[in-house]
Prior knowledge:
Elements (H helix, E strand, L loop, with lengths): L4 H6 L5 E3 L4 E3 L3 H7 L3 H16 L7 H11 L29
Antiparallel strand pairs: 1-2
Helix pairs in contact: 3-4
Amino acid sequence: xxxxxxxxxxxxxxxxxxxxxxxxxxxxxxxxxxxxxxxxxxxxxxxxxxxxxxxxxxxxxxxxxxxxxxxxxxxxxxxxxxxxxxxxxxxxxxxxxxxxx
Length: 101
């Protein structure tokens, strides 16, 4: 369920991914509770912020909004891991050995 204009106005500027422009609301649990937003709606706001930021011709980048969402909730951002594994520069990925029959 979308939030009302009154609920959005009750959110502090720090509840947005871009606080100066008050774009992409991504409130924490405490901020949402003070504004009268349910937990289900709060998580919906997080998913909507990710969706809107991924669209072309919108303000903001997906990476910035995804970082804010990861910090404030446990909503998956389309990746299988929160932080990708990094290989050192010298390692080479090798194929699994074939079994001989």
